[in-house]
Amino acid sequence: MARKLIAVTACATGVAHTYMAEKALLKAARDMGVLMKVETQGATGIGHKLTPKDVQIGEAVIFATDTKVREEERFDGQNILQVNVSDPIKDAKKVISEALAKADESDNA
Predict the structure, then answer these.
(1) Which of 29, 63, 75, 90 is geometrically suited to a Cys-Cys bond with 34, CB 3.0 to 4.6 A?
(2) Tens digits of residue pLDDT in 4-32
(3) Where are the domains of the chain?
(4) Model's pTM, two decimal places?
(5) Order of strands across the sheet with 4-10?
(6) Rounded Cα gap, residues 87 and 96, in angstroms
(7) Which CATH architecture has domain 4-108?
């Protein structure tokens, strides 16, 4: 069965890096056979907003952000991997692997 991750991307200005990180994560997830949904929090507001069901089925949440996540309380109790917004742009597969490892750690705890 495919692994499932969710992510929030947001940069300080909410323009280029937010969407570059989203694109990098989605491409890497597809290449790795991981199902992923990415919420963008940019200058124009929240895009592709994660639903409570998305949050529930995600094994881990990647916060690829350089600013505070809006409505962060939606993710209470989830496995959260916090990285800089530039990290998935540089190496999205590494970020996804770290998030999956975090999910596996909590399953074994």
Answers:
(1) 29
(2) 999 999 998 878 999 999 999 999 999 99
(3) 4-108
(4) 0.96
(5) 45-47, 35-42, 4-10, 60-65, 80-83
(6) 11
(7) 3-Layer(aba) Sandwich (3.40)
